[in-house]
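User
Please review the sequence:
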Amino acid sequence: MGCVGLIFSFATYSSAQQVGPLKPPPPASSPAPPPKPTPTLTNATSPAKAGPATSHALGPLPIPLEEAVQKFAAREAAFKEARGNYTYTQMVDVKDYGPAGEEGGNFHEVRDITFTPEGKRFENVTFAPGGTLQFLQLTPEDMSDIKNIQPFVLTPEQLPKYDIKYVTHEPVDELTAYVFDVSPKQVEKGKSYFKGRIWVEDQGYNIVKTYGEAIHGIKMKKNGDGQLFPHFTTYRENIAADFWFPTYTHADDVLHFKQGDVRLVMTVKYSNYKYFGVKIKVGPAQTDKPDHQEELK
């Protein structure tokens, strides 16, 4: 699953706070027959292939593209530092459905992102009853994507890795936003990237919504088996001052494995944001501790 994309490998068949104005859609009902496949984002200039339908354009960028990109990237750097000083709860729920639409199982997990008295950051799993997914298998890449791809953060340090194209200027609920398409310039083995569309509100240049998929440098096996990546939408809300934090990610996609289609419905909710008040650097999680805690340095 990215705090924030999800990745799944085919198991059974292949061998094995509402504060801001952006309102997430209601959870998908289930069970239900597989929907039509979500189109892959291939055309950087086609809004119809990048999530919800867009409305009429409001106008061009008022400043050069490079300047606009630098402005929202700077806001992203400030947001990343601010969020690193907050505790919160993350809930992940995944359901899978077989090729004929039959209901499979689910994966459910709740974890608290918190701090020790010394100010070290930890992820503490508070609820994990054990997954019952039948047609999909979660991988380490999936869990990494929840942290790094789904709550996509595009800081100045990340800009050299991506091509960014301006698409339009349009309403988003009670806001108006500049819309950009983002794609990796190259995909290196063992690394993950975001490919899709971002909405940047036009007052403070904060990213308020993303739609896309995780791209990984993973080769498919000779028999065609491998990991596939669903499309997801992440919404942010105005949680603190003028910072917009991710609060909701949703995916409802059909993955086209060689042995058959599998539908997944995934929801990630971020809640209970509370300011802790320490300055830290957030990096890759260490190996799980026996008490289900992960220290983040």
In short: The chain has one domain: 8-39+63-296. Helices lie at 65-83, 140-148. The radius of gyration is 19 Å. Residues 1-21, 24-55, 282-297 have pLDDT under 50 and may be disordered.
